[in-house]
Design a protein that fits this description.
mainly alpha, about 70 residues
Length: about 70
């Protein structure tokens, strides 16, 4: 057993999160619903393929002027 290990130790952050979940049991469901609004979206693969094809390659030094 390691010398410095305390099995009963919980950080302040862990204690805060545990208290928050105990005070508001619907928190995780609300987080999932909010994530669904912002992040879990269907992707348009055709549009993404068009964006990839339309990309213009970047010059090695972007601030260089075209002098020819």
């Amino acid at each position: 057993m390691p010398i410095f290990r305390r099995p009963d130790y919980q950080s302040e952050v862990t204690q805060f999160i545990d208290r928050l979940k105990a005070d508001k049991p619907t928190l995780e469901a609300e987080q999932r619903a909010g994530r669904g609004l912002l992040w879990d979206k269907a992707q348009d693969r055709e549009a993404q393929a068009e964006y990839r094809e339309a990309r213009v390659p970047q010059k090695p030094y972007v601030y260089q002027t075209n002098t020819k």
